[in-house]
Design brief:
- The complex is a heterodimer of chains A (about 575) and B (about 375).
- Chain A has about 575 residues and is mainly alpha-helical.
- Chain A has a domain of about 220 residues.
- Helices cover about 50% and strands about 5% of the residues of chain A.
- Chain A is built from 28 helices and twelve strands.
- Chain B has about 375 residues and is of the alpha+beta class.
- Chain B has one domain.
- An eight-stranded antiparallel β-barrel of chain B has the order 1-2-3-5-6-8-9-11.
- The longest helix of chain B is centred in the N-terminal third of the chain and has 11 residues.
- Chain B starts with a helix and ends in a 12-residue tail after the last strand.
- Classes of the chains: A mainly alpha (about 575), B alpha+beta (about 375).
Amino acid sequence: MLQRLLRGTPKARRTKWLLAGGGALLAAVLAIVIVGIMRGTAEPPSKGTPKSMRLLTQDQYLNTVAYVFGPNVQPTTRFAALPRIDGLLASGASLAGLTDAQLETYQKTATKVAAQVVNEDSRRYLVPCEPAAADAADAACAKEFLAQVAPLLYRRALPEEQIDKFVAEAGKAADSLHDFYQGLGIVIEGMLISPNVLLVAEVAEPDPDHPGEMRLDSWSLATRLSLFLWNAAPDAELLAAAQSGALQTKKGLAGQVDRMLASPRLETGVRALFDDMFAFEDFTRLTKDNTIYPAFTGETAVDAREQTLRTVVDHLLVQRADYRDLFTTRKTFMSPSLAPIYKVAAQGPGWTPYEFPPDDPHSGLLTQVSFEALHSHPGRSSPTLRGKALREVMLCQTVPRPPANVDFSKVQNPDGSVKTARERIAFHLQNPSCAGCHRIMDPMGLSMEAFDGAGTFRHEENGVAIDTSGNLDGVEFTDIVGLGKALRDNPQVPWCAVRRTFAYGTGTAADSNDRRVLEYLSAEFADQGYVFPDLLRDIALSRAFRKVYEPHVRKTYPLPDLKSAERPQQTASAELPLSGSAAAHP
Amino acid sequence: MNDVNDRHSRSALQRAALGLTALAWLPLALSGSVTAAEPTAKPAAKPAAKPADLKDWAPPGGRIGYVLWDEVSWGLRETPTKEECPNGFNIGPREQFAEEFPKDGKKRTLVETQLKREAAIWDPDTTPDEFPFYEATGKYAIGVNLDGKDTPEDFESDDGRKGIDNQLFRVVGCIRNYRKEGELGIITTKWRAQKPFNRVTFEITGVDSLKNDPDVTVSYYRTLDTLLAGPTGNYLPGGSQRIDERWGKRFIISAKGRIVDGVLETEPFKEILVPEDGMGDPAINIFKSAQLRLKLTPESAEGVLAGYIDVEQWYYAMNTSWATHHAAYGQASAASIYKALRRLADGYPDPKTGQNTAISGALDMRLTQVYVIHPESEQPASGAR
């Protein structure tokens, strides 16, 4: 080869060298591309997510209080419900309003927390110093305590003068109430109802590595990470990383994310994520007709929710198993109040691991009471509700709302010869105005008729064998186990998990997310064998997670103030008596 | 419950096929773990498929448990016309006190009156009763032929069984407290259901058919768990009961039995101890040579635990379980009852005195199906599925 290149005239040799060099360059580029493809693509550029302001949820608030003051501080409270946006309450938190009634709840909760923190039992270990006198102010001791807790509640380092203001307020209250600890309590209460605590207002800053782009500042990034992975405000170590700037470095961020993923607090975060994703807040409203389902009690509902969350945590975090296998796994946990619904023995008074045998119809989350009972009516099952939930919760699809003039009399058909749900709702698919939507719900919903409205497996309805065959997006199956397998193999399932998890982590509606980023994360998720903690890591470390942009704020035009609007007739009529009155009563 | 009804209407072929897939295996291991990280229980041995003939349905693994939740009565057969009490009902402690110490102006001390009556309750004797005592009489009674004999003092059951031994019926049959209008039926059932001390469970093993099986084993346990309460005051099948192998060892006993037309009859258990905690002073009733006669379904059992009941223990349990007002309103005079118990006792004579120490009787009861959990057993306990 070399000899061939050296042969010929100088011009010919130069041409040969150029051709050879070009070929080598092309080969090198091709090699890089091939290696790149083999190693996976880099995260595509995206505009990031909108910088948001969101309300701290009840669990985030309570988890934060528990972290700052210890798990013994557990105020009973009930924050206002959040709207569910794009399948997540977490997204709704950025659209929630704040009413007077909510503020009252926050204030009452803050009072309870403060009282528990400074009561005689707790103060000994929660307040790190003893005041010179318990019935008077002690600025030094107050500062030692407040300088420790205030940054944890505010989720950022606070300037010295801010701490001093708190200390001064604590001192004033202590002098007024003749009690040092009550003074501290007043300041704790005040901090807990501060908008800076209750609202997560993300702050953006220019990204020095990408001129022209914005990123979350360190405190906002710390908070976003912590709410995502722990469902609580950042801990002291994460705040320290934010303060030092380490969190804005690749290594520092990875170190903190790995630490958070390795923490036992990850379980709290993952439970919160799936509780939100599966719309389990509906359990608080779930009722069953106990003359029809006598074994389904209030405790059953609580345990059904817990069973699924335990299954998810064990499968995803403990076993680090394939996310998709959640829909086929036979491993779960059993409690005494659930065992009668499953018609199995409870091995103990509390929760015990349980595995259904290979030929059992219980296989995967769809066969758990949490899905079957939650998506049923109080006195009967519902193929439509179940099919709709499967589409919306597990596949992130949207089923249109029913028309306003829908005729329910067909569903409530009193004809005694109609024995099964399949017969009752057959008209759905015959009536063109119904079929459009029901075609995407009923075929899989009917296979779940193998479970009654309480979630108990059954072979028959009204003495007639239940036909559990169906299809999901073209995949045929004959029973509920087949549906679980079809769902497990449906590519929309991991895609949906990625979409929801990213939206949950960034606190923004899924529709705002960049599809290319989600596709990239989905591909990574698949490459990593659908191991969920790896997905969490990928999301937390992605540029899209920390890159933000100013959201488009829709301009609103306030309604006219009717009280002050000038309306000639009203003004005239209103002025008359006033002037008359003024004349009469100078 | 619905499931069982459904099961009854299923065709034979469907049952055979579906039974293979529907019956659950139960975990073997009994780790008390509750955390997500702990290993799962081993799957149980595969239970038998349901036989084609529903009447021959057998519980999975040949095991079925029943927990006692309702004490219907102490073996009382009550008739609407009260024909078993031709002389009426007995009077109670208030009436006896008023009769013994009339308001006749005579001065009496506390020792001569209340304390005397109190002593008669807590230090009873067999001297003739100062008051007439009306025993229940008649041809029929609830119970079991315990001694295999048919003697004049024995009864006949409604289904024609002769030689029914139930002398306790004679004692309590005409005392209001023990009848339907009394408090026993309500309160002892409440105590039985609510107090963990009172939890007892029978388990039948080796069951090939719940309809007819000539050879089964019945075991009796004290168990640990709460009952599965239903919405209408009843208790539901499908709960689980762990055997108390620590403090309940002395309760554990087994006997052979047979099931004929859905009715279980056992050989005599040597002794069945029935815990009885009413008012916080626990007692144990002792049934000697005890026999069970229970009508079985996959969901429940009802019938009697019959035997020779230790008189002193039964009397002690009565006095400690029932408060004074129960006895007063229920017209149950302890002193008179004791004398009747001793007078009518018909079993287990004291070797020294020759006096009988036990009285034949029956506890009429209802039980509901449970899964019996054997803590250290390799075989899982199970019930109807």
